[in-house]
Amino acid sequence: MTGAPAPTDWLPDLTGRNRVKYLALVEAIADAVAAGTLKPGDRLPTHRDLAWRLKVNTSTITQAYREAARRHLVSGEVGRGTYVLADSTEATLFALRDAPEAADDLIDLSTNVPAALPGDDLAADLAALVAESGAAALTAYHPAALLRRSAVAGARWLADRGLPLRPAQVIPCAGAQQGLLAALLALAGPGETVLVEDVTFPGMKALARQLRLKLHPLPMDAEGITAEGLDAACRLTAARVAVLVPVLQNPTAATLGPERREAVAAIVRRHGLTVVEDDVYGAFTDTPPLAALLPEHGVVVTGLAKVGAPGLRFGLIAGAPRLLAPIAAEVHATSWPASPLLLDLACRWLEDGTALALRDRQKAEIAERRRLAERLLGRALPLSPHQWLATRGDPEDAAVTARAAGVEVVPSGLFAVGRERPQAVRLSLTAARSRRALSVALERLAPVLA
């Protein structure tokens, strides 16, 4: 009978990390998993061995492994040891969770999902679609005509965003995350350095691991990345690609102002950089994508998930023809995975104004929830579905305290690209099932963040 694998000889460097030792070790585990130093299935050192090598108490290692397990980084097996899980921490944000009314009365504000609003029901639209087109047509492979129609409808959506493009410059795909994957597969090679904001969305970190990309953090201020920081990073790394969220950046909700946009665009052109722009939240603003200033250097990835239809899995990849060519060549990574049924439904919504109506309803709900949050938290907030809130001390501690109070939020470590972790947590205003649930959650959070 085969025994358990031997523990790794991994020894983390806790220098400069959280002053709370067990949290410093958890951070080190998370970084090692993200970097690939610790791989799924690796067995961590035993509690006693690691405690001796780090010169800490065994209870510190026990507490750290327990917290790492809570974050779905590792799993402990009695008699066999502690193992690195295959599922990333980022992926757990999208795992099915108990409803706020479930045991422990936990209100989950951790996942960026649109608000559930009365009347947002796909059933009637799907039934009408099947009745009109027939189930056979909608479950077959998608015809070329449907892909052309999707590109035309997508071009109209982007034109409403202030980015006028020809349908030939638009590729439909199965959601924005899949579009980002397709773009990076075509534009960046394994081991290549990609520039990102110094705190970036979990999906980007997950893709970097999958594609073996090296992420280099760009410094940010209240508006987002700085032109000076971008210029310095380009000179230092010679990177060819940047993945940015210039409008309602996730997690910070920062938006580049007009002067900053011009300055950043000038640096992009100077260095011949390709910017892959995630614009999934841009529809809630009047600020066009940065790609409007970069007709030869920009690729935009967007979709309908955040405006009210996360299950529709409809996305768009659009931009400069020379950049789209290698992406479009890989149809199995772009339009092929998209469901004909959902493509047809998305086209109808884009054509008849339903998508715009969904966006407007979400935007109105975000405004109401933002007002509620400003009143209960006593601070000014941007008009955004997600909020980046400063903590008094360590964000991991704040998240643990918030959870104990009955609210799930996300500490900055999940978004941090480098070793610096801002003292902040992200929460989603639209994740609460109702304004009443959000009010309860914010009342619980207020003393944690005060």
Automatic annotation (TrEMBL):
GO molecular function: DNA binding; DNA-binding transcription factor activity; pyridoxal phosphate binding
One Pfam family hit: GntR
Tagged with keyword DNA-binding: yes
Keywords: DNA-binding, Pyridoxal phosphate, Transcription, Transcription regulation
HTH gntR-type domain segment(s): 19-87
Cited SMART domains: HTH_GNTR (SM00345)
Family named by the database record: In the C-terminal section; belongs to the class-I pyridoxal-phosphate-dependent aminotransferase family.
Record-given protein name: Transcriptional regulator, GntR family
Organism: Caenispirillum bisanense
